[in-house]
């Protein structure tokens, strides 16, 4: 069975590990938010890996005895219920897409979390007044590394093509993978029994 290495099943958040920028690590992000009442933001543009980082972190909260409650907000889902009444000092509220909320609601959520000693971790496209824990800023070296991971092979023969695809719209890893899906289809590059080969 032929499978495109950049199909959604391989590239969706949680399927590939988040690659931390220099000076940051899984441990440093967890340490910034593990104390009761701690608040912080992961900041970066659309498609820069914020949701992937949340998936990587999610596997570790229970090891700290924390109960994660995640809410994902989008332009069409701005009015999702945020269950503050059910949270306490053992809880971590994660809001993916915090910028979708009105400023007054952001402030209210932050205040309620402080009152209840609930940890608050958000993703946002820009400054929202919370301490910034990590900034996601994809560049070409990261894009090449992720491409190599997904292709599971030496990408040297393809590097010029991959770079050209990246330069079409640099900065958005999600859209880069989408374009690479079509690039693989055009060039006959598929996964077959755990290996990638070009026909």
Automatic annotation (TrEMBL):
The lineage of its organism: Bacteria, Pseudomonadati, Planctomycetota, Planctomycetia, Pirellulales. This is AAA+ ATPase domain-containing protein.
């Amino acid at each position: 069975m032929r499978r495109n290495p950049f199909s959604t099943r391989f590239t969706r958040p949680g399927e590939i590990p988040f690659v931390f920028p220099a000076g940051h690590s899984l441990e440093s992000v967890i340490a910034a938010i593990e104390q009761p009442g701690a608040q912080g933001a992961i900041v970066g543009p659309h498609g820069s890996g914020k949701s992937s980082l949340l998936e990587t972190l999610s596997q570790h909260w229970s090891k700290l005895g924390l109960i994660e409650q995640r809410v994902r907000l989008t332009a069409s889902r701005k009015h999702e219920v945020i269950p503050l009444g059910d949270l306490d000092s053992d809880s971590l509220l994660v809001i993916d897409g915090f910028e979708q909320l009105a400023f007054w609601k952001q402030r209210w959520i932050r205040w309620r979390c402080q009152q209840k000693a609930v940890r608050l971790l958000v993703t946002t496209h820009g400054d929202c007044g919370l301490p910034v824990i990590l900034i996601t800023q994809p560049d070409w070296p990261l894009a090449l590394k992720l491409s190599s991971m997904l292709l599971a092979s030496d990408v040297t023969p393809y590097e010029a093509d991959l770079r050209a695809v990246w330069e079409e719209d640099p900065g958005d890893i999600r859209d880069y993978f989408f374009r690479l899906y079509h690039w693989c289809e055009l060039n006959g590059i598929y996964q077959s029994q755990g290996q990638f080969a070009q026909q």
